[in-house]
């Protein structure tokens, strides 16, 4: 008598148990994988900032020790009329924004932070909905209190309030953005605690485009009507900010200090101003 081979399959309950176990493992592993991916992107971001910082240092050597100017990320010449832009870093970074997949000006975490979708516009440093343009957009800003040789008013106008001028400048004699910044590097007090570049949607970090004490949607300018994205690393849903990577004047790169977003005590300036101009 020939016996039939009976192949036993999984029962519905067994399949549900297996599926539940797989789903549980995925739920446990995905956040960890997400953190690993973000950590890797942050490493690339810091490497970009080191490259930019080194390029800025080389530029200063070639320009009598001056700090870099506001138009650091613009090409040379900067405009169609042929005006020269002495502060352009392009020849130092060798990473023009129209070179795909070779852009030290773009942080890989910016896309995951919603950076490129927050607004449209064709100004340098602006977010855009066009993915081809977005890939060329810069995501780092320079400390405008160091870089802005003409922060407000006409050239040669002295502005007494350090929040409204290059805080490290010495007074009259402002020059246009395309020459140099407001001070020489060796004049900057505490260079290891002074921001030079950081993660920022706009190409310059100024009082008009940066305030970590309020939601980014509230930091609005004519160039960024929907607010300015910044400090996006490890940003969690529902939170205003994560943290920023910062390139400091002395050359080192690190994550932002823990007290950058600390609220001020009565009659004191916000703590973040210390790292930009309030030494």
Automatic annotation (TrEMBL):
The gene is xcpT_13. This is PilD-dependent protein PddA. It comes from the Bacteria. PROSITE patterns: PROKAR_NTER_METHYL (PS00409). Coiled coil: none annotated. GO terms for cellular component: type II protein secretion system complex. Keywords: Membrane, Methylation, Transmembrane, Transmembrane helix. One of its GO terms (biological process) is protein secretion by the type II secretion system. The chain crosses the membrane at residues 12-33. Pfam families: N_methyl (PF07963).
């Amino acid at each position: 008598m020939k016996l039939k081979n009976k192949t036993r399959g999984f029962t519905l309950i067994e399949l549900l148990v297996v599926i539940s176990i797989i789903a549980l493992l995925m739920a446990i592993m995905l956040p960890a994988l997400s953190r690993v991916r973000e950590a890797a992107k942050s490493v690339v971001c810091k490497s970009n900032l080191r490259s930019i910082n080194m390029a800025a240092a080389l530029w200063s050597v070639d320009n009598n020790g001056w700090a870099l100017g506001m138009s650091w990320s613009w090409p040379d010449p900067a405009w169609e009329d042929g005006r020269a832009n002495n502060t352009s870093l392009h020849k130092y970074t060798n990473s023009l924004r129209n070179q795909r997949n070779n852009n030290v000006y773009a942080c890989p975490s910016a896309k995951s932070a919603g950076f490129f979708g927050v607004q449209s516009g064709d100004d340098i440093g602006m977010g855009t909905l066009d993915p081809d343009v977005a890939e060329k957009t810069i995501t780092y800003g320079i400390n405008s209190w160091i870089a802005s040789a003409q922060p407000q008013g006409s050239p040669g106008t002295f502005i007494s309030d350090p929040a409204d001028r290059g805080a490290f400048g010495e007074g009259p004699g402002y020059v246009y953005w395309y020459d140099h910044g407001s001070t020489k590097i060796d004049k900057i007090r505490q260079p290891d605690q002074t921001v030079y570049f950081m993660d920022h949607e706009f190409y310059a970090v100024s009082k008009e485009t940066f305030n970590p004490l309020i939601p980014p949607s509230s930091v609005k300018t004519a160039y960024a009507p929907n607010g300015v994205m910044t400090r996006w690393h490890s940003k969690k849903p529902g939170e205003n900010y994560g943290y920023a990577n910062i390139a400091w004047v002395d050359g080192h790169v690190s994550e932002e200090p823990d007290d950058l977003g600390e609220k001020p005590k009565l009659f004191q300036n916000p703590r973040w101003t210390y790292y930009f101009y309030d030494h």
